[in-house]
């Protein structure tokens, strides 16, 4: 656990629009601080002048925010003269596949965010119990459950962010390609429903193989006439999380300070950690680069084998997905300093989709950053060229899947 640090914050009113053209009214608090909330901070509200802050799984300052968000044994009138409360939650999030191994812990982590007002959980079975369990957690968001195709539309209406972890997990000896035929149909069906019911939502694709399921989602959205490349994301955050963790362990660095960009795709050799771009700057031997790169690329297999048939990387994936959801919510909320690596439509290479660092804003991807791909080492440059044919094939496989189904439907 990182050592505690004292953070002093100044308070100012936060105003929110109650509707188009409506008069603004104070709804909460804003804080200026020398240590701004620039990292993944799942609990952002605060109401204390001086607080102790420790690093937690939610990132810098989040423990402090948690302490400040819940002030026990103080009546509302005693807190502030104008009865000001911590900032109101405002965004609606749906998880499709919420009863699964990733969906359940992901739902719990998202339930903890004060930026979420409504959390909708969908699955084909066993989701009512998950929703009932989560609804007992004393965080502000309201949890509702939706079971089966007949309830999918109601689950999605009005959502700001839709997260799709639905599908079957990998088992020992199973490659991501083995998942394709099952998960491709699942993703296609769910994205069709998103297109029909909340076409303006941010869509986060977790279902593997992401290198193919994102192109599937794109083709579906194009057919529906609602494709916005700025709002569709393949969640590759787990590759970054693993890279940061493994590098920090190898080099005995403070984990919260480590940032390793990971580019390419989200399977095997298409996962390319750019260790030369690690922050803080650190030197690796050739052997360390090879060892770390292979371990990051095979992180999912490491977990599958360790669980010996009992599951795949569900908990770390849920954590990584929650981090990306929180970043999206912060961007929607007006934070102008949100950056994440993700798999998106891109012009950085000759490939139509590519994972890289992007800047997120209220309308989705504001910029796809090219700086990380400049000045690569010889090892990284060769690895980048080596991954392109495999990534290209996976992308084309996803596109062909949807186009084939559309042709078959048209011929009937």
UniProtKB/TrEMBL annotation:
Q: How does it assemble?
A: Homodimer.
- Every copy of the Lactate/malate dehydrogenase N-terminal domain together lies at 92-234
Q: Which InterPro entries match?
A: Lactate/malate_DH_C, Lactate/malate_DH_N, Lactate_DH/Glyco_Ohase_4_C, Malate_DH_AS, Malate_DH_type1, NAD(P)-bd_dom_sf
Instruction: Give GO BP annotations, semicolon-separated.
Output: malate metabolic process; tricarboxylic acid cycle
Keywords on this record? NAD, Oxidoreductase, Signal, Tricarboxylic acid cycle
Signal peptide boundaries: 1-16
Q: So which domain of life are we looking at?
A: Eukaryota
Q: In the UniProt record, which is one GO cellular component term?
A: mitochondrion
* Protein name listed in UniProt: malate dehydrogenase
What catalytic reaction does the record list?
(S)-malate + NAD(+) = oxaloacetate + NADH + H(+)
Q: Whose protein is this, by species?
A: Phoenix dactylifera (Date palm)
- What are the residue boundaries of the Lactate/malate dehydrogenase C-terminal domain, all occurrences included? 236-402
Q: Which family does it belong to?
A: Belongs to the LDH/MDH superfamily. MDH type 1 family.
Q: Which gene encodes it?
A: LOC103703073
GO MF term (any one)? L-malate dehydrogenase (NAD+) activity
**SUPFAM superfamilies, per the entry:** LDH C-terminal domain-like (SSF56327), NAD(P)-binding Rossmann-fold domains (SSF51735)
Q: Known EC number(s)?
A: 1.1.1.37
